[in-house]
Amino acid sequence: MSDQRSMPVPDGLEGDRLDSALARMFGLSRTRAAELVAQGQVRLDGSDTAKSDRVVAGAWLEVNLPPPPTAPSPRPDPVPGLGVVHEDDDIIVIDKPVGVVAHPTVGWSGPTVVEGLLASGVRLSTSGAAERQGIVHRLDANTTGLMVVAKSERAYTVLKAAFRQREVDKGYRTLVQGHPDPLRGTIDAPLDRHPAGDGRFAVVSGGRPSVTHYETVEAFRAASLLDVQLETGRTHQIRVHMAAMRHPCVGDHLYGADPTLAARLGVQRQWLHAAHLAFEHPTERRRVEFTSDHPADLHRALEILRED
């Protein structure tokens, strides 16, 4: 069953192409938005439309959105390299390897944290969506490092609230191109989906508030190793903020990294690792803290830079 939406065009989209405006309003790709227009599923002020029409603020928009695709249900499936850092009756803290996402999702056929834990016999919280058992925060597929997963229902509720209220300390290490100026600082820039609708995110006026603190730990000729602390946890936040400073994460080709440097360092993904995680235990009410060393591929890249 389609989802019928009726609303005025927001002021901030005045003059945008219709397909671009739809993509920004409903989180669609521009291709999918253009298909809806071509199928006659979009009307402006009661009239048929074309994807290249320019929208006017306040015009009445009517859209029939298709039902969202359903994520596959999780099934036990072993994940090699999924390390357990800590486990008790309420939580499990894991060290996620590269190439693994948090939970099953539409379009992903690779390994997931949820399925790997289920295959290991770990009982996870069933709160939330069925495919997201126990998941209270996520890392990108090619970002390695620490994740906490809820085993009990109480832990799920408390941890979700702690992440939402920014009570969890999330520390990352990233190797970026060049040398940030100043060497330490704060990036406060709102993020939203890239207007191109191609899966990227971008600094966008009116986007969701996003704050990143960084400090240079070690400087090399062509790159800098940074400690990063997140106040917010937006999708691709560190990657987008660093790229916006013109210092993309090494190996992050999606956001403009130099492929030559990545090849020289043997880096085949963004150099980004969740190295520190601290929060109040959801049932024991004591502060717990966990750390993770750089995985082998990231460590080797640093060795090459230090040998230069």
Automatic annotation (TrEMBL):
Keyword list, A-Z: Isomerase, RNA-binding
Similarity field: Belongs to the pseudouridine synthase RluA family.
UniProt keyword Isomerase present: yes
EC primary class: isomerase
NCBIfam families linked to this entry: rluA_subfam
Organism domain of life: Bacteria
Protein name: Pseudouridine synthase
Gene3D superfamilies per UniProt: Pseudouridine synthase (3.30.2350.10), RNA-binding S4 domain (3.10.290.10)
Domain Pseudouridine synthase RsuA/RluA-like, first and last residues per copy: 90-244
Enzyme nomenclature, EC number: 5.4.99.-
Pfam families: PseudoU_synth_2
Catalysed reactions, semicolon-separated: a uridine in RNA = a pseudouridine in RNA
InterPro entries linked to this entry: PsdUridine_synth_cat_dom_sf, PsdUridine_synth_RluA-like_CS, PsdUridine_synth_RluC/D, PsdUridine_synth_RsuA/RluA, RluA_PseudoU_synthase, S4_RNA-bd_sf
Function: Responsible for synthesis of pseudouridine from uracil.
UniProt key word Metal-binding: no
